[in-house]
Design goal:
With 273 residues, the chain is an alpha/beta fold. Helices cover 37% and strands 14% of the residues. The protein has a single domain, classed as 3-Layer(aba) Sandwich (Rossmann fold), CATH 3.40.50.720. Strands 3-2-1-4-5-6-7 form a 7-stranded parallel sheet, with helices on both faces. The chain is globular, with a radius of gyration of 20 Å.
Length: 273
């Protein structure tokens, strides 16, 4: 007599079971086009190279022309020199993209009462308004194709606040909300939207913060990494750009179709507190 406890999955139609084999399929982005901002160095450079390595046609955007040239050397990556804070010029960037990676960012460390107004506005334009505009002009193509990936490089500061970073924290929290709205609107069209939230990453952006962090916290520059950057984390090291790129690549792969509207912490347990 057959065992009455037979797994119900054995008789379930494929339409109900989904595609479990997807987790074993390699990530092949041949035929996909990606646009990566802030791609001259750090996270953006690693993501651009990872996507190109998987077969995507990649447009790498940054205002640093020399950095772009160095990053793309030996890779099949198209480079575009542009200032992403020049909002009106964003319409000149490619719009027929299947994968949009919003990564460009800057930092300014200062108490609120001393925070320069023009610097605050620049950070919001670059890190929140610019991603909105790029998403807005890219979605029609993604909808037409029935497939798209919006990947927002957020930060642990999209989930937590720190003193002296009012503009950066504001921009990243806004990006989190924007990403969720895109996920809700894009889901019926095959478009997913996610955030990646690393702690401090070994990038030029982080290195440039050390002097300002030392000044605002009134400690020597030699103590900033240990006493400020690594103090909130259980994993006592900086995140590597290639780690972020590996997660971004997964989010473009065959096992990510239902991964949307969420944020992926790579913060060494910072947000576990």
């Amino acid at each position: 007599m057959p065992d009455a406890r037979t797994d119900a999955r054995d008789d379930a139609p494929d339409s109900l079971l989904g595609a479990p084999s997807a987790v074993n399929r390699p990530i092949d982005l041949t035929g996909r086009t990606a646009l990566v901002t802030g791609a001259a160095s750090g996270i953006g450079a690693s993501v651009a190279r990872a996507l190109a390595g998987a077969g995507a046609k990649v447009h790498a955007v940054d205002r640093d022309a020399d950095g772009l040239a160095s990053m793309a050397h030996g890779c099949d990556i198209a480079t575009i020199t542009a200032d992403l804070a020049d909002l009106d010029s964003l319409a000149d960037l490619p719009t027929e993209v299947d994968i949009l990676v919003n990564n460009a960012g800057i930092q300014h460390v200062s108490p609120i009462e001393d925070f320069p107004l023009d610097r605050f506005e620049l950070i919001i334009d670059l890190m929140l308004v610019s991603p909105f505009r790029l998403i807005r002009q890219s979605l029609p193509h993604m909808y037409d194709r029935g497939w798209g990936r919006v990947i927002n490089i957020s930060s642990v500061h999209g989930l937590r606040a720190s003193p002296f970073k009012s503009a950066y924290v504001t921009a990243k929290h806004g990006l989190e909300g924007l990403s969720k709205v895109v996920a809700l609107e894009g889901g019926p069209h095959g478009v997913t939207s996610t955030c990646i939230n690393p702690a401090y990453v070994r990038t030029p952006l982080v290195e440039r913060q050390i002097a300002d962090q030392a000044r605002t916290h009134e400690i020597p520059e030699s103590e900033v990494v240990e006493k400020v950057m690594l103090a909130p984390v259980a994993v006592k090291r900086l995140v590597e750009p290639d780690e972020v790129a590996a997660l971004a690549l997964f989010l473009c792969g065959p096992a990510s179709g239902s991964v949307s509207g969420t944020s992926f912490s790579m913060d060494g347990a910072w947000t576990a507190h």
